[in-house]
Every structure is written in C-alpha cells, then in structure tokens.
Amino acid sequence: MTRHARALPGLRAPLSVAFLTDLHYGLYIGAGSVAAWVDATNALQPDVVLLGGDQLDARMDRPEDPLLRELARLQAPLGKYAVWGNHDYGNFGRAGRRYGRRRADWQARREAFAQALAGAGVTVLRNEGRALRDDVWVGGVDDMWFGQPDIPAALAGAGDRATVLVIHNPDLLPDLPGPAGLVVCGHTHGGQVRFPLIGAPVVPSRYGQRFAMGWVKGAYGSPAFVSRGLGMSGVPLRNLCEPEIALLLLSPP
How many helices (H) and strands (E) does the chain have? Predict the structure, then answer.
C-alpha cells in the first residue's frame, strides 16, 4: 500500500481515494488474493474506491462469482467505480487471437458482467461520469486497445467540480483534450519485472518507461498517477515491483 497526498483544484473538502487496478482475477490470481486486497482496502476507510481495469484475466478458467463476492465487500461511502481494461475485453471475447477465440456475443457478455458488478455495488463508467459530491466528479474512460475511449464524454457534466479521471491505459495521457484535475491509470504493472539500474526491460506502452509507474504528467500538465497494480500478466512473477493499493489523500488547494 502506498499513500500520496495531493491538492486537487476545485475540491472544497478532503477526499480519500483507494485506487486498485489490474487485479487479473483468473489465470494466476484467485479469490484469496482478492480477499486480502479487499481487507487491506477496507482498513484504509476510503471515501471512494476506484478500480482501474483488467479486473479479469482474458484466459481465466474460473467462475466470476468469487471475485464478485469479494468486490461486494469493499466499503466506501461515496461508492465503488470501475473502468474496462484490455484483459476485460479479452475475457468478453472481443479481442481475438492474442486473447483466444473472438466471440460474436462479446458485447452481451460485457453488459452481463457490468450488471454483475452492479450487483456487487460496483458501477462501471464507460465514457461517463458521476458527481461524488457537489465539489468532485469522477469520470471513467473505455479501454484504449479494444474499446472506444471518449474522454470528453467522461468529463461531460463536471462543470466547475474537481475532476478525477480513471483511464486504464496511460498511453492516452498525451491525448487529453484539456486539463484534468487528476488522472489515475494502471495497465503497465510498473513493468512487473524490474532490475537495478535499468528498471523494467519491458513496459506495455508505446512510450517505454515514460509512463511505467508513479507520478507523471499528461497533456496540459495534468497530474497523473500510474499504479503498479495488483495482479500479474504474462508470467506469474514480480521482481522489484511490489503490488500496490494506492491511497490518494486529496485536499483543497
């Protein structure tokens, strides 16, 4: 778990945000790991929980019910919100090839899982947003690789509220259409396998190490935080790259 204190323009009262991303439930991650992450998150007593995508692993061979039961235990008075990641789409059957056979019914599967998440108290934001309070807006963007990301739609309705934008893939950061108060991202896993001096040999980003992890900047100088995430992809290994639940302690300027 990491803690980060930051001022957020437009905020009128403090806001604590727990950011969990890249759970990758399925291939290497089971319900026990998710349960431990949920317990750790609840102990932080956040105002809101944000899930940054890749809740599912595309090659999963387990039922989704254990994941849903654990996510239902997350506690946050202002709600629980999620966005889709590329592995979510792979699990729906949208991606094809790299993630397995493409399915004609992938859209129906996506909507069915969104409804299942809603039953667990998690609202999926796909190019849309919600007012958490009178002074803060959270927007969620569809996946960059397999969805149809629309950042303006995610921020429509924000008005003069402080904005927190959830984007799975940080490669969208240079394409922000305007300044954002705060952007949170996942996808990269921090490279997942890192080495002294050289960092991560492989980062799934067209920008290499630029958006691998930590605090970065998007277009218009927008501050963004890229989490190392929680699960694993590709290989069941992390090296010098610990899993991360990020607690963002946001305050008025």
Answer: 5, 12
d(CA 40, CA 16): 15
Q: Coil, strand, or helix at residue 166?
A: strand
Beta strands 15-20 and 246-251, pairing class: antiparallel
Q: Is residue 164 within 8 Å of 137, Cβ to Cβ?
A: yes
Q: Which two tokens stand for residue 136?
A: 């803060």
Quote the pTM value.
0.96
Strand residues in 135-203 grouped as ranges (E): 136-140, 162-167, 182-185
Residue type, 69: R
According to CATH, the topology of domain 2-169+242-251 is Purple Acid Phosphatase; chain A, domain 2 (3.60.21)
In tens digits, what is the pLDDT along the chain, a chain of 253 residues? 999 999 999 999 999 999 999 999 998 999 999 999 999 999 999 999 999 999 999 776 667 899 999 999 999 999 999 999 999 999 999 987 667 778 899 999 999 999 999 999 999 999 999 999 999 999 999 999 999 999 999 999 999 999 999 999 999 999 999 999 999 999 999 989 888 978 788 889 999 999 999 999 999 999 999 999 999 998 898 988 899 999 999 999 9
CA of residue 81 relative to chain centroid, distance: 9
Rounded-to-integer distance, Cα 112 and Cα 74, Å: 21
Q: How far is CA 175 from CA 25, 45, 108, in A?
A: 30, 33, 29
